[in-house]
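All the exercises in this workshop are built on plain-text protein records. The record below serves as our worked example for the rest of this section.
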Amino acid sequence: MAPLTRSGSTSPAKKAVQKPSQKPSLPQVKPQREPLKHFVLPKRLSSNTRFLLLKHPRTSAPQRFLFCPEQGLFEFTKVNAPSDDPRSLLFSKPQQDASIEGHESAAGSNEGGAISNGYISKSPDFFVATPFDVAFLLLAMILPKTLKSNKALFQPIDDILEDFIQEDKHLRYLFTNGRRFLEQAMLGFCDSIEAGDEQLYRPSEEKTLQMVMQKIIAARAAGLPPSLDEKFVKRKLELPMLSVKRENSSASTSLDVSFQDSSDTLAENVDSQSSAASSAPSVVFSEVSASSSTTSVAPDSVPDKMHDLQQQSIVLEYILASYVPPVVAERLQARFAAEKSPVDFTPLREHLKTIAQMKAEAAASRSIGDFSRKRGLDDEEVADLREEKKRKQEEEDRKKKAGESRGVRDLKKVNVTGMKKMSDFFAKKPATKAK
């Protein structure tokens, strides 16, 4: 029997001089590279186009922008793929003079930019360059100081931006190569005069209000996204419809009451039917929807004035919450709520207040009646939370099913009727009685 020997020395000194061929070979693991970010850029960009890191006017955090001396400044909007629909992106070189049927032969011969030379990204998210108004960048730098001091003098643009340009090289590049964009943006929220051959600017709160109003008008003229208009305009202006149902032992009478407008005008629809109902009377309040089985009188359409005011209010809130510093946003919000506002939102506030009061009264009446037979009035917030919870649960179930192996899925299909469970084999045996 051959004696047992060690395959290698345990001495650190001998290990240092050991030949490379004697070292145990370990599998080489390639470092995982982060997925590439994909940007959709505008056409006809100049050779001086650059990515710039500028402070976002709302958060003051550095954010990536794209600046073209010919087309202006662009911000990047991230487009997310649906989380419940796994997918990837395939980037390939374009096929030249090749039909759809000839793609396989082109890929096999690797001629004319084969598809095998492309790139597959596991992350389907991408960033789209959208135009960005330089006025918001300048407004965030200049207007807060003016609001604090309440004193502003006419100055050239070089003196106004001197301190900011010295500290930020990216802003300096924007100032050097896009001066005309900055000067045009200064006219949007500043008073200006000419002193010789030089243009002087002074920040103005009135001009800022006018600039925001122009943004609101332009956004409404272009049209709001359907999802935004449905959720934040139409749903906010919907009037609650209450249905009151009374049942007696000899006859059942249903009365549907619909609130027409803020003046509390009512329309009644009485329908009597003879039936043998329950002996105890009950009063039920419920919100009538399109799928409800009860009949009701449809409310009048929302006045166009209220719809327009709500659209303007939503666009205003979006602009102030997305592109304006908090200090300036609060000041502008107060100006829009004042008497001399560019838009009078008083009728809209009264209308929304009436709707909120009607919903509160309907919610308070839920305690009356037999809720075991009829659903009560659900608040819009509660319904949204329930829908969101259901969506998340379905998404989690879908992810669990996607992560299961084929063997587990096959085992779930096996008919186990009559079979013992695994726990039965490990259960303690009952004690036997001594004879």
About this structure: The domain at 134-204 is CATH 1.10.10 (Arc Repressor Mutant, subunit A). The two ends are 59 Å apart (CA to CA). Residues 1-5, 97-115, 244-299, 370-374 have pLDDT under 50 and may be disordered. DSSP finds 15 helices and 14 strands in the chain.
